[in-house]
Amino acid sequence: MRTGTSSSRQGIERLRKSIKVVVILVLLGYLFLWVMLSTNTYRTKWQPQLRAKTNTTFFGKQGANLLVFTFPVLLTASLGCVYLHLGKKLSGNAEGKSKKSRLAAWKRPALVKGPLGIVSRIELAFFVMFIVLLVWSLSMYLKNGFARITPMSAANHGQKVWEARWEDAGLRLGLVGNIALSFLFFPVTRGSSILRLFGLTSEASVKYHIWLGHIVMAIFTVHGLTYITCWIATDRVNQMIKWQKLETSNLAGELALLAGLGLWATTFGRIRRKLFEVFFFTHHLYILFMVFFILHVSVSYASIMLPGFYLFLVDRYLRFLQSRGNVRLVSARVLPCETFELNFCKSRGLDYRPESIAFINVPSISKLQWHPFTVSSSSSLEPDRLSVVIKTEGSWSKKLYQMLSSPSGLDRLQVSFEGPYGPSSTHFLRHDTLVMVSGGSGITPFMSIIRELIFISQTTQSKTPKILLICAFKNSSSLTMLDLLLPLTNTPSNFSNLQLQIEAYVTRDTEPATHNSKVRTIWFKPSPSDAPISSILGPNSWLCLGLVISSSFIMYLFLMGLITHFYIYPRTTFPNSARVALHVLLTCISIAISGSVAFLWNKNQNATDTKQIQNMETDSQEASPESSEYNSERELESLPYQSLSQATNVHYGKRPDLKKLILECKGSSIKVLASGPKRLRHEVATICSSTPADNLYFESISFS
């Protein structure tokens, strides 16, 4: 039996290596095409040959771009799904020790402060290479474009040479902006297999989306202004309202730019933080932006940026399907520090990693608002529960806290759920020591890590790293958040195998508070309409996602080919706007059919779990044990909480000396995680990047 298992494992590993090689080769070829796109070699040699072979009555001019730009990315996404599916079949927890990564030095912070935030050396290197690609493309476009403009060619269009070059410069800026737009949607595709292949999550990749968004809008704004000023200077203002049926529509481009500017205006830090709801709703202008953009450039050229947007649409539709129902909210723990934990029921087939996030909607507060929160539970330690911890900061969370802390209480709370989303793997066991630094509610991502390590220390032979948790709170009432390090149910009898040390700092209080610090637990009644949280595509979600991506794209090609061959091609002329409408409609139909079939099939598979939840009766339980201050006089009935108290040192009236605490840690490999306010994360990043020691591995965790 062991021999067969070992042979099967080796077969899976070989298959994964083969897929990895194919994916790398495809991506290298895809990136090489972007480098060559602006050259005369591509324009005069490669592109004509491609169009000659693909410009059929089924695909038209769009065929070449679909083949060289769309197909490689969707193939990579589909193969990536298979790669990740096979990875789940390998042992999850037995990570073991690993050799020092060759990229370890490149993952250290290179920039800490500034508009880009905390940026590692490898991120900075890729950012610089991307900027070089844009500069290279613009320079080649301008060089080749200006070389074709002569006094005679300009006169043929009724222009002078400077006017033709001015207008040509605007065109080339638009082409360069499309390069950045092609990558814009990859970071915000939450269930993306491509992100997971690079070891990224959608939450950690949001900053890439922000960078790309600013670049896209800056280039497109200059692109639009270049054309508008040229038209004004040459008395051709009427070009601004031009909407040609068969060629580029100027008016559509201007409408796309206006939608983009309205979206862009609310994305800057101060506006986004103070007026989040305005930012949230105006961000949906991306729909108008993309529709008018495609009308502006035509379907054929839009195929260049189609793959990223196509994967985003697949992900967005699947998320829509998951968020339609209500989930079973089992209980809530309400803390005196205006913080609460929501405990949901989940199917046992749903596995997720520490540092995952989930999106929650409470219709009684707002049917439209979805808010991201860090998952605090461990799917290994709590196989049938999923928890999130929420700190009241905005109006939405304050309303929810008031509902839960009301003396009259709640029998049931209707909640919709989306996610969870997280890394495909974790590497905590590869380090000797874990140093986790948090400020305020930044402790929530560390709850899931500690719970995961508690499970590993009790159930496997793997040696867990030594844990140093450094947490800072403003008030002593916030110390009750440490009670959430342990789950409400299925609490382990002991975690003596876990080397845990907690250094808690209360910055504003100089001594323990005397007010009531009881943690209140609320148990909710089940409803027939509630269902356990489950993966949108089931336990084999990656494999199903690959099937949805591939089948929907094949369906799109099939329908598009039929309509083009029998309806569009026989006509001598066909309006561009009608062609765009048809392609958008076919894309949406294909994604909707494939996604709905996968969703309904998985829903039937989960019918047993749903029935069990509907029949589940809530046990009448009292509130959890009172959570008092962490000192020598603390008396708790629960042994785990006693162990937690013994591992905790509380320091009142001062801030932690982070540099001293971090540099005093011993070990050949020390992972330093920082979560909380930007200032704290920057301070930790500075410490890790400035020290000459090569045993510190820094990671900034985005928490919600």
From TrEMBL:
Membrane-related topology note: Multi-pass membrane protein
CDD domains the record matches: NOX_Duox_like_FAD_NADP
Catalytic reaction(s) noted: 2 a Fe(II)-siderophore + NAD(+) + H(+) = 2 a Fe(III)-siderophore + NADH
EC numbers on record: 1.16.1.7
InterPro entries, A to Z: FAD-bd_8, FAD-bd_FR_type, Fe3_Rdtase_TM_dom, Fe_red_NAD-bd_6, FNR_nucleotide-bd, RBOH/FRE
Species classification: Eukaryota, Viridiplantae, Streptophyta, Embryophyta, Tracheophyta
Similarity annotation: Belongs to the ferric reductase (FRE) family.
GO MF entries: ferric-chelate reductase (NADH) activity; metal ion binding
GO cellular component, one term: plasma membrane
GO biological process: one example: monoatomic ion transport
Membrane-crossing residue ranges in chain numbering: 20-42, 63-86, 124-142, 169-188, 208-234, 246-265, 285-314, 542-568, 580-601
UniProt organism field: Dillenia turbinata
Root EC class: oxidoreductase
Name of the molecule in the record: ferric-chelate reductase (NADH)
Location of the FAD-binding FR-type domain: 322-427
UniProt entry keywords in alphabetical sequence: Ion transport, Iron, Membrane, Metal-binding, Oxidoreductase, Transmembrane, Transmembrane helix, Transport
Cofactor requirements of the protein: FAD
Key word Ligase present: no
Subcellular location: Membrane
Name of a matching Pfam family: Ferric_reduct
